[in-house]
Every structure is written in structure tokens, then in C-alpha cells.
Write a structure and sequence with these properties.
Its main location: secreted. With 433 residues, the protein is α/β, with parallel strands linked by helices. It has 6 helices and 22 strands.
Length: 433
Amino acid sequence: MASRKLLLLSTVLLFISSSLGDRKAIEIGVGVNLGFGSGPTPSPSPLDDSSQPAPAPSSGPQPSDFPNLKQYYAYLVIQRFKQSITCDPRGVAQTWVGYRPCTYEGFYCAAPPDSPDTPTIASVDFNGFGLCAPTIVGFVDQLRDLAFFHANSNYFSGAIPNLTGLPYLYELDVSSNLHFGAFPADVLPLSNLIFLDLRFNLFAGAVPASVFAFDFDVLFFNNNNFNQPLPAELGRSPVAYLTLANNGFTGPIPPSICNASNTLVEVLFLNNMLSGCLPYEIGFLSIATVFDAGFNQITGPIPWSFGCLLKLEQLNLAGNLLYGEVPDVVCRLAKDGNLANLSLSGNYFTWLGHSCWDLVKTKVLDVRQNCIPGLPEQRSPAECSTFLWQPKHCLPSHDIPCSLPKSSTKRPMSSTPPAYVTYEALHHPPPRN
């Protein structure tokens, strides 16, 4: 691991001195899709993965025209890709001329670790260029010394090429394009890859369990067509930022998520087809700041272990099938922790813990469209009765696997609602026991 980190550090340092400039901070949000539509079928690669680009004819540019042989081969790859471009609204490809590919717009050079005196193309940044091409096969995979490839918001189509021949690649961003097919599993053997962004494409099927066996820091898979259960091994990954929102994932949230307790900072399960009981193990995510599993089919009461999420700033469980009492220990996170937004609307909760009433008044807690007597904008009695009489299979969990700050309040009120509660409960919460 130490040697890997040293190699990665060496690769990162290549770009500190480059003209690329500072990257923006990582953003967990699912972003805004550009609505590109469907893409053309990819054409076959003009290159064999195991060979260098074919030499140019004697009448064309020669290796001696370039600063080194690596830049000569990069030139051949770029020119071949340039011929496949079908739209270029900013005229970027017009700058890809001459014998100095390090000066081409979107390309940046540095010396790879194995050739410290031989600068070549080490970084490609096409973000926002709006380029159209039927495939990036034969392009990305042929730039052998590439350390990162960012191509957000273009019209690249087809599958992701086999990138196992790129030993230095540590960031891959192909978000907001037209890529399709199965999950690009060929990127997984890349030992240095820590950032993988596939957002807003047309990938479908399953996310392989092996994804979570590698040392990723960032995995952005939202807004695709993934439609299989989440791998049970999800918690094996040391990932800090995980977005799986707006797909068709099914099944429960794996209890193994607790194994990511010391690394997972933000996780988005929003708007899938997840089901099953809300896992007690989520309460072990000790450094998480955002947990969003809204608009699924998750059921059961909220485990009291959620009261351990002292660093949590946003908790969204809206639009599920949750029921019971909103635990007082969870609402206390607004006072004892960092909680600023608790969204539980569109469920079947029947009562609030003592500390929750003030959060409704301050609009930190949203419990609209539930079954809580006396509160406005609740479900109809008939709708609540129909749901609450259905068999329930999720057992309540009142265990708290952490040491919580001492509360100034007494124990939460009973979960049994009174026969009649007026709207005044919003402004004058029920007295403490």
C-alpha cells in the first residue's frame, strides 16, 4: 500500500506544475443532466490495444520533428481521434495542429515516473467542450502515460475502452455523455484509480461487487439505468463519496455499510427501487455528513442507532414506507450534533419524539404526508389505517451503539398518540413526562 501511495503521489505531483490549474472541489450533488438523447453505435477501434500507433508515412511528420518519441506517438493518436469528431462547437480541435501536442487545447504534459526526462501527454481535460464522437476507443486507451481523463459534458458514445494499459490513470470522468452498455469493468484492475465518475450516461445492468474491493475515494454512478440489487460487499470500499441516485437499484441497503464507518462522508441512494428494512448499521457511519435514501420503498421504524450520527447535516428518508415514532434521539442531532435538514415527508409515522416538535416549528424537520394526529398536511385516516393494519416485518431497534451527549430533556414521550391533538401542538409541544 505504501508503494502504491508513493506512486500515486508522484503522479499527482506531475500536475501541480502543469498549466492545468487548480481543480474545483469535489461536489457530491447529482448534478444537472444536459439531456443529450441517444447516441450512435460505436465503431471498432482502429488500433490494437497491444501496439503503438502505426508510424506515419515518410511524407508525413517524422519522429525527429517532435521533442521525443512519446509525443510523436501521442500526436498520431490525437490526429486519428480528430478525424472521428463530428461536432466541435468551440473549435477546440482546430488547435490540434503542429508538432507540439503539449500546446493543444485540452491536453497537458508532464513526465511519467518511468521517464522523468520525457514529457508527454499526461492529462486530458475536455470538460464542457461539447465534442461529438462515436467512440473514445482507440483514443484514451492509446495515450499510455495518461494520469487523468476528464470529459464531462460532451457527446461521446459507445462503451468505455479497456484501460488496463494505462498504469498511471488515477481519475476518470466521463459523466454527461452518451456511453452505454454494461458497467465498464475493465477499469477496475487499474491499481491507482481513485476517482470514477459515470454520471448521466446510459449504462445498465448490475454494478459488480468487485467495484467495492478497490481503494476508490469517489464513486459517482447516479443517473444511469443500473437496475440490479446493491452488492452485499458495498461496505468493503473505503470510498468517501458514493452516489447511486436516480437509477433502478433494487433490494435492501446492505448491512455491510457499517464497515465504511470511518470513511463514508456522503452517500446518495435517492430515487431508486430499494426495499427492505432500514438497517440499524447505518448508525455506525460516524463521519457521515449526508445520508439520502429518499423516494424508495424502504420500510420499518427508524433505528435509534441513527442518534449516533453526530456529524450528520442532512438526512433524507422522504417518500418511503417508514412508520412508528420519529425517535427523540434522532431529533436531538439538531442540538447535540450538526443536523440542519431532516426530511421524513411521505411516510407513515404516527408520532414524534419530544425533541422533534421544535424542529417542526423551525422547519428543520419535514413530516408532511404522514399519519401524525394534529399536524397539518397529513395523509387521510383511511390511507393511514390501510397501511398500519398491514403486517409489519421490521423489528424496532432501541439500541444506541455510541455515547451520546447528555440531554437536557427527559426520556421521549410514549409512542402512543393521544386521542386528540390540536394544531396548537406545533406551537406548544406536549408537556414532558
